[in-house]
Write a structure and sequence with these properties.
Helix content: 25-40%
Number of strands: 2
Shape: elongated
Radius of gyration: 20 Å
Strand content: 5-15%
Number of helices: 3
Distance between the termini: 83 Å
Largest sheet: 2 strands, antiparallel
Order of helices and strands: EHHEH
Amino acid sequence: MTEVKPLLIPIADAARMLNCCRETLYHMEKRGELRMVRPFKRTMVPVSEIERIVRGEPLSGEVGEPVGEPAPREIKKLKLFPMVTQ
């Protein structure tokens, strides 16, 4: 019987394989450095993406090249309540 290798692995397993935390992988996805898929409402990482990262190859294909620096986020001003003194 031939061994069947998975094409997708859970994000927790991908993080263990790359020796990082899950949040790092989510940040990599947000920056365009990693592709993830969400079949059945579960975040999975293609094994080919893990292998590509280990080889040190850049992201290419449909999604495009990795983006540079993330766009600066706008700082929202908070409205403070005036202090009431008597």
